[in-house]
Design brief:
Structural class of chain A: alpha/beta
GO molecular function (chains A, B): 5-amino-6-(5-phosphoribosylamino)uracil reductase activity; diaminohydroxyphosphoribosylaminopyrimidine deaminase activity
Number of domains of chain A: 2
Mean pLDDT of chain A: 95
Radius of gyration of chain A: 22 Å
Pathway (chains A, B): Cofactor biosynthesis; riboflavin biosynthesis; 5-amino-6-(D-ribitylamino)uracil from GTP: step 2/4; Cofactor biosynthesis; riboflavin biosynthesis; 5-amino-6-(D-ribitylamino)uracil from GTP: step 3/4
CATH architecture of the largest domain in chain A: 3-Layer(aba) Sandwich
Distance between the termini of chain A: 34 Å
GO biological process, one term (chains A, B): riboflavin biosynthetic process
Oligomer: homodimer
Number of strands of chain A: 14
Order of helices and strands of chain A: HEEHHEHEHEHHEHEHEEEHEEEE
Shape of chain A: elongated
InterPro entries (chains A, B): CMP_dCMP_dom (IPR002125), Cytidine_deaminase-like (IPR016193), DHFR-like_dom_sf (IPR024072), Eubact_RibD (IPR004794), RibDG_C (IPR002734)
Protein name (chains A, B): Riboflavin biosynthesis protein RibD
Helix content of chain A: 25-40%
Strand order of the largest sheet of chain A: 9-8-7-10-6-11-14-13
């Protein structure tokens, strides 16, 4: 296997996908750092808003590998890591190469700018996945070029672009993703489908969603809570897509604090929201197909149940897949 | 992400899985080499019998990275690579670490022994996935220990063991795997399901299988050839599992040269074969469940067709998954 620039960039892309859906309102970003002998020093990703950017985490790990100074590993705050690196780097980064799936940011937001950090540390070579279209954060590339950083663009443009598709969408107006869990025989009914780990991941996604859309039948049959309790997170507002408005108000989702629940027969409500998850099966899949940007399938390696997607007609492009504990996660774009 | 011994071993395991089903009668083996600063120098796998072992390919790549002597890259024959390394290594491997999913072999088969090569090159540290139970090839670990190589065992025992399950089976008596292609909605009918790349992979597997088992209905409906033409490979013998023996002899599979075709209503025939692939859908899945060691599903990210696995009941453990062009490959062990 070729261990080259594409390989290092693809490690960064894969790592970033693991946190897709969790970084809102920030993009999913990954970063790999290799040393002067192309030794792999760090592979990191941005995990959630308020946490350090991927580049900062990668520089933190790489600094430890290069200097053996373990004090930096105690720092969790991005500003503290920035400051520590600026004070102690002693030109250790001089010959490294940094691979970032997204152009390093040039603005000071929740954390200081990554591009300025890269310049201050004297890093000579930065590979960029895609340019950042976000007007506030962008043009880190120009800043780096002015500071004599050799900025190169990856050949894995398509994969780097796929990775920030959700960010581009919610940055522009809103991002809508359809999540479902199914067995290998396409069923979605009869008991729990996904493993505990997959369900935790869904709760972590709900925690950063502002609206969750679900079908009326699912509410009546499953009597769900639709919160983020498995990760101690906040519960999103809920839109129950239903012609009838009568629901047993003892169904737990109605009693979750600090949440609005709407029961409506249209999707007009979504205009007020930015990061929207739809959970459902075949019926919701059909009803929402015109508004969905990306599909996320949790596929359990089991066969059972009664029905689900057996009659569906669709074609997808797989953007990323990985094993999540016992299940498979499939991030997909719909083609047909 | 932690870049540690487990990470390097898992790179080797993942690389080896890419050639699972293709290495018969050899095991699928992967090898990672890292330099003295833990820089990643090579990730390689054994690709098919007669080709160099994973360790030899990894040492070849690593030698080039360490010395910049490109002449070694022209060599394809394992003995030539061995000899070149022995003549020119000049102690460049002294501080490397080698991670092999399987204990390096100690016997001279189609290629010279990897364990003796490791000893001759002065490698100080070797991480082993699992011990080799093959009596002829095994005890490379003892040879290395006698030569003061620091032999360590990975903590990823379970994954390394899963990887050589097919080898252990055909080494003992025979290995039987069930391969099917399905859409995301579990259908297996109505036209081509898998991408060209997936079909090539199946042909490459047929090339090393000695028996292919298929159901009578599939033969009548699909009128298949069941050869390995997409990879210019040899066609395996075919067992058509069928109560009725009347088939249109114009069906292409009957005209493939150098192949036996059996039409039988039992699986007794398999006792004469070592590496056996079953291709089919739900019916064959049910009929063969008692003899199958591993399942391989090519999952296309499409929904359509009419029927397939919708009524199946089963539970699997996923051993390995990866994207194969547009499809997903799932290697699984059946649990229920």
């Amino acid at each position: 296997m070729l261990i080259d620039d594409d390989f290092f960039m693809s490690l960064a892309i894969d790592e970033a996908w693991k946190y897709q859906g969790l970084t809102y309102p920030n993009p999913a970003v990954g970063c790999t750092i290799v040393g002067e002998n192309k030794e792999l020093l760090a592979i990191e990703a941005h995990k959630c808003a308020g946490m350090p950017h991927a580049e900062v985490l990668a520089l933190q790990s790489a600094y430890f590998k290069l200097t053996n100074d373990a004090k930096i590993l105690d720092l969790v705050d991005s500003s503290e890591i920035h400051n520590y690196l600026l004070l102690h780097h002693n030109n250790c980064f001089k010959n490294i190469s940094l691979y970032s799936t997204l152009e390093p940011c040039s603005h000071i937001g929740k954390t200081p700018s990554c591009a300025s950090l890269i310049c201050s540390l004297g890093i000579k070579e930065v590979f960029v996945g895609v340019r950042d279209a976000n007007i506030v954060a962008s043009d880190g590339a120009s800043m780096m070029l002015e500071n004599k950083v050799d900025v190169k663009y990856t050949t894995l443009q398509k994969r780097a672009k796929d990775l920030i598709l959700p960010f581009e969408r919610f940055n522009k107006d809103q991002f809508v993703f359809f999540k479902w869990a199914q067995r290998l025989n396409a069923t979605t009914d009869t008991g729990v489908i996904s493993s505990q780990s997959s369900r935790q991941k869904v709760h972590a996604m709900r925690d950063v969603c502002d609206l969750l859309i679900i079908g009326g039948n699912t509410v009546r049959e499953d009597r769900p809570t639709l919160d983020a309790r498995l990760v101690d997170g906040k519960a999103p507002d809920v839109l129950i897509l239903s012609r009838g408005v009568e629901f047993d108000r003892e169904i737990p989702l109605f009693s979750v604090p600090s949440r609005e629940v709407y029961i409506e027969d249209s999707l007009k409500r979504i205009k007020n929201y930015k990061n929207i998850m739809i959970e459902g099966s075949f019926n919701m899949f059909e009803l929402t197909k015109d508004i969905v940007d990306i599909y996320l399938c949790f596929l359990a390696p089991t066969m059972g149940g009664v029905s689900g997607f057996e009659d569906a007609k669709a074609g997808f492009e797989i953007l990323y897949t990985n094993q999540e504990d016992k299940d498979i996660m499939l991030w997909m774009k719909r083609e047909i």
